[in-house]
Each structure stands twice: as structure tokens, then as C-alpha cells.
């Protein structure tokens, strides 16, 4: 049972990763992203998820340095973007991200999307970064089962994490099962469906029972399925409220009623057609 913001899961290589973190997609470089990260850290978050594509790695790094929190207490994720994939270009992209973040080591480095014909070479570069100790864990984003099988056929290192779009309208049960069977930790991006599901009566009624918002109900649902979640916000009250999900538990019946909201609807592109 996940009972606090500092609770961690143990990845397949023994590295501990917080179950809950802050996503910073669309947070503007500079003051906006710095204030969001500083606010999250103030309220106890210890995991921050960025990407080269977001264009805000420098602000994330500054906020981390200014926080005064020991580096070993923080977990920082970034990602290699599609036009940077390939062996040499991934190594270059990693160094650029590391420089912008101002960190010696990245905790988790992810392939952002499964670019056909490129992701295996990208993975080879990431395995090298991992062997050299420049990154503590490596993984992927937006990989379907067939992508994972294809990657794992030739890889020396099994992805530690698969970060995918995941919310009550896209429950991805088969992918979740496959990842659990292969010791790959599933992580949810867009867990609140960009706000599009938060007026649903099922979530509202469950929330009323516990004195929680629909958003808090969804984030609790993530955690109780063993899925890491990284809701994004730049607003202090939302950052604080999102993390207030550790003092209640959903019943099996409530979990099932949220599962039943699935319609296989995406807010982002399909990994086979992005």
C-alpha cells in the first residue's frame, strides 16, 4: 500500500523510484517551471519528470539546485526526442540534457516514442549510458506490447519503465499485465485525461464519500493498480491537492467501477501512428 509521497517502488535493477511525481510538460522554461518544481518539492514531491522536447530542462535543474535538497533524495527523469534517436545522436542528446539539468547522473532516461527503424539503435546507446553509470535506469515511453517484444529480443537490458498515456478512459489492461509479467514498471502520463474526465458522476460520487476531488480519486486509482503517476500542474493549489491522496483507499468495487469507464480513448497520438 502506497501511504506517502516518499514511498517508492523498486525497479527491475534495484533502483528505487517514487510512486508519485510532478510532470512538467508545457511548463514554460524560466520562472514558470522553476516555481512549479520548487512548489512541488516544498510539498514533499521528490520525483520530477521532464524531457528534452519540453524545452524546460534548465529551469528544472535550477529549481533542484536552489531547493537545497540532497541530490540523492531526488529522482529526475528526462527523455530523448524523436529527431535525436539513433546511436550517436542519442549519446549527444543525453549529454545535452545532462548539461542543461546540471546533473552528473540522470535517474531515469527514456525513449520518448518508438520511432520505427531507430528505437533499437537508441536503446543500444542507452544501454551504454547505463553500463557507464551515467544513468541509473533506462526505459521507454509509449511502447505497445509489440514494441516491447521487438526491443527485448535484441536487448541486454530490459526496460525498467514504460511511461504511457493512462487514465480511466484508457485503462490498457493488456499492456499493464504484460509489463507486470516482464517486471517493467508502468507509469501514467496524462493521468487526469487533461481534465476531460473530472466531471464524471462515478468519480464525483466516489470522491464525495472520502471528501476527495475526482482528480484525487483517479490518482489513487493509479497507485492502487501499481502504476506510477506524474500529474502535471504549475498551480500551487493543484500541485498540493494532487498529492493529497495518501489518507484513503478505494474499495475493490470502486476500483472496478473506475475500470468500467474505459473507452480506449486517447488524448495523444497512438504509438503506432504518431
UniProtKB/TrEMBL annotation:
InterPro entries: AKR (IPR020471), AKR5G (IPR044500), Aldo/ket_reductase_CS (IPR018170), NAD(P)_OxRdtase_dom_sf (IPR036812), NADP_OxRdtase_dom (IPR023210). Substrate binds at residue 112. Gene3D superfamilies: NADP-dependent oxidoreductase domain (3.20.20.100). Residues 30-262 form the NADP-dependent oxidoreductase domain. One of its GO terms (molecular function) is oxidoreductase activity. PROSITE patterns: ALDOKETO_REDUCTASE_1, ALDOKETO_REDUCTASE_2. The active site is at residue 54. It comes from the Bacteria. Keywords: Oxidoreductase. Belongs to the aldo/keto reductase family. This is Aldo/keto reductase. It comes from Paludifilum halophilum. The lineage of its organism: Bacteria, Bacillati, Bacillota, Bacilli, Bacillales.
Amino acid at each position: 500500500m502506497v501511504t506517502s509521497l516518499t514511498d517508492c517502488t523498486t525497479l527491475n535493477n534495484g533502483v528505487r523510484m517514487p510512486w508519485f511525481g510532478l510532470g512538467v510538460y508545457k511548463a514554460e522554461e524560466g520562472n514558470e517551471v522553476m516555481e512549479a518544481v520548487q512548489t512541488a518539492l516544498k510539498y514533499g514531491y521528490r520525483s520530477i519528470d521532464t524531457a528534452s522536447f519540453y524545452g524546460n530542462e534548465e529551469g528544472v535543474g535550477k529549481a533542484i539546485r536552489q531547493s537545497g535538497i540532497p541530490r540523492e533524495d531526488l529522482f529526475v527523469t528526462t527523455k530523448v526526442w524523436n529527431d535525436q534517436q539513433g546511436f550517436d545522436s542519442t549519446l549527444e542528446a543525453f549529454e545535452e540534457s545532462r548539461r542543461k539539468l546540471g546533473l552528473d547522473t540522470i535517474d531515469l532516461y527514456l525513449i520518448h516514442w518508438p520511432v520505427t527503424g531507430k528505437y533499437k539503435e537508441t536503446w543500444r546507446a542507452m544501454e551504454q549510458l547505463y553500463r557507464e553509470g551515467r544513468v541509473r535506469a533506462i526505459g521507454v515511453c509509449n511502447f505497445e506490447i509489440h514494441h516491447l517484444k521487438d526491443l527485448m529480443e535484441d536487448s541486454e537490458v530490459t526496460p525498467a519503465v514504460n511511461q504511457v498515456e493512462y487514465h480511466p478512459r484508457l485503462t490498457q489492461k493488456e499492456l499493464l499485465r504484460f509489463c507486470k509479467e516482464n517486471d517493467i514498471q508502468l507509469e501514467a502520463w496524462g493521468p487526469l485525461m487533461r481534465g476531460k474526465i473530472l466531471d464524471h458522476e462515478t468519480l464525483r460520487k466516489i470522491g464525495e464519500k472520502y471528501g476527495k476531488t475526482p482528480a484525487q480519486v483517479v490518482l489513487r486509482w493509479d497507485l492502487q493498480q501499481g502504476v506510477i503517476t506524474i500529474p502535471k500542474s504549475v498551480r500551487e493549489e493543484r500541485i498540493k491537492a494532487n498529492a493529497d491522496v495518501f489518507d484513503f483507499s478505494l474499495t475493490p468495487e470502486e476500483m472496478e467501477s473506475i475500470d468500467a469507464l474505459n473507452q480506449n480513448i486517447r488524448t495523444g497520438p497512438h504509438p503506432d501512428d504518431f
